[in-house]
Amino acid sequence: MLSLDSLFSRQPAAMLGLDVSSSSVKLVELGQDRAGRLVLENCAIVPLERGWITDGNIEKFDEVADAVRRLIKKSGTKTRNVAMALPPSAVITKKIVLPGGMSDQELELQVETEASQYIPFPLDEVSLDFCIVGPTANASGDVEVLIAASRREKVQDIQGLAEASGLKPVIVDVESYASRLATSRIIANLPNKGVDSIVALFEVGAMTTSMQVIRNDEVLYDRDQAFGGAQLTQMIIRQYGFSQEEAESKKRTGELPDDYKTVILQPFIDSLVQEVARAMQFFFTSTTHNKVDMVMLAGGSASLPGLTAAVTQQTGFACVVVNPFEGMEISDNIRINKMEREAPSYLTSCGLALRRFLQ
C-alpha cells in the first residue's frame, strides 16, 4: 500500500496544492472564512527551463527542487503539507464491483487480489490505493470501487521532490482528477447546477493539449494531443531571434513587435482551434454524442485574445476560459490583475488544494 497517507486521503489541516508540469511549478493555498466560503490565500508560478521535466519524468532534480523552494518563498506561505499529482499516463485506474458490507481489512485484501489482474507489474513494485465510489447502479448491495496504482518509483520521485523542497507530501492524486475537481465548481454554475451538462474541458499545456469530456463528474471521453503553448514560443524565437527565456517572458507580458498579432499569434490560434475541433470530432465519432453544452479552456494559452470566440465560431458551441478561483474570496496579499491573467494555469493546483476540504 502507499507509503503516503492515501491517493484519496482527506486532510483537514492547512495544505498546499503543488502542480509540477513540464514548463512551470504552480502553487495554490486555499482557506475558508467563517461563513465557509473558500478563500484564495496564496498562489504563485515559477517557470522551468525546457528539458528539466520530460514526459512527466524529472530529469533535473536539483534544479526543479530549487524552483519549488523559490516558488514557496515567492508565495509567502508558511504551510508545509502538500498535495501533488502524477500524470494520468503514470497511473492505472480501474473500477471494480465488490460485495458491500466488507470490513476495511477484507476490502483491502479483495482489492489487492483484483488489482493483480489489471496491473502489469508485481504488486510489491506498485503503490496501490482505492476508494469506494458508491453503490452499484443495480442497487444489489454491491459497491463500486475505484482502484488506482502507480509504479512506486514514480510516487517516490515526487515525494522526494517535495521533501527536498522542505514540504511534507500527504496526498498523491492524478492530475486529471484534480483538474476535474476544480472544474466541477465552475460546472455547478451552469443552468440546472450543471446536472447532465456535457462539458468538453481542454487544458492547453506547454507540450500537450489534453481533453476530458465530463458529465455529472464522469469522464465520457479523454484524449491527449501533441500541441501546446511551447509551439507559440518557438514561433516567436524563429521570427524575432529572442532567446528561450526572452520569448517566454515577452509572451507573458505582451511586449512584442507590432506585427506579432498578425504574423505569429493569429496563425497559432488558428492551429489551436483546429486541434480543438479535431478532438471534438473524434469524441463525436467515438461515442453516441453529437454535441456538448460548453467548451472550457484552461492552461497557459487559454487566455489568448480571440481564442474563445474562434472556438465558438469553428465548433458552434459556447466557449469560456476557466477561472478556478471564480466565486472565491481573495486574500489581500494577492495581486488581483496578475492572478486573473494567470488563473487558467492554476486549474490542477487549485484542484489539489481543494482536496483539503473533501470529507
From TrEMBL:
The lineage of its organism: Bacteria, Pseudomonadati, Pseudomonadota, Betaproteobacteria, Burkholderiales. It holds the Pfam family PilM_2. This is Pilus assembly protein PilM. The gene is pilM. One of its GO terms (biological process) is cell division. It comes from Rhodoferax antarcticus ANT.BR. Residues 15-183 form the SHS2 domain.
